[in-house]
Design brief:
The chain is an alpha+beta fold. The protein has six helices and eleven strands. The strands form two sheets. Strands 7-11-10-9-6-8 form a six-stranded mixed sheet, with no helix packed on it.
């Protein structure tokens, strides 16, 4: 059965409210990144809402949670990073949370609840967007257990949907 997809553009006020609301959570000023006229289209799928800013997938909303897409370079370049060993990569790319033993190091400081980018140690490629369950100083002391909740990863439904839509647009 084909997936039900609904698309619509947000009004100027809705765009401003969205960008202002999410900027604080991402710790990035979205209005500065997207100078000038910003068009935001919402793609509603059965599993998520994907916000396309000027045609590019930037934000994802699942339930009440909004987080950055793995392809949002404006966030990826400035976000704190959690570097994981190559043994953790296949598990994270299957949806597993980031466990303390798999962490090699951190780049940048973060607080509990902040979004972080999970990257592999070999190539430094982003493989997931996660939510820190502890601040960066606490995580350094933790030896076992989950330390980052996996929200969006390479190969998930959202990733595959975005790849499919990108291929159709070309």
């Amino acid at each position: 059965m084909p997936e039900k997809i609904r698309r619509h553009f947000l009004k100027t006020k809705e765009v401003k409210d969205l960008l202002n609301g999410v900027s604080g959570r991402l710790k990035v000023c979205l209005e500065q990144i997207f100078e000038g006229k910003v068009n935001v289209e919402v793609v509603e799928t059965e599993f998520a809402e994907i916000f396309l800013v000027n045609g590019k997938p930037i934000l994802i909303k699942v339930g009440e949670s909004i987080f950055p897409a793995l392809v949002f370079n404006g966030f990826l370049v400035s976000a704190p990073k959690v570097v994981v060993d190559m043994g953790a990569v296949p598990h994270i790319c299957n949806g597993a949370n980031v466990m303390a033993p798999g962490i090699v190091c951190f780049e940048g400081d973060f607080m509990k609840g902040d979004f972080v980018v999970v990257v592999d140690e070999k190539h430094g490629k982003p493989i997931a967007i996660g939510e820190a369950l502890h601040n960066s100083e606490e995580i350094k002391k933790i030896k076992q257990g989950v330390v980052v909740k996996n929200l969006h990863f390479v190969g998930d439904k959202i990733w595959n949907f975005m790849k499919k839509q990108d291929a159709l647009a070309q």
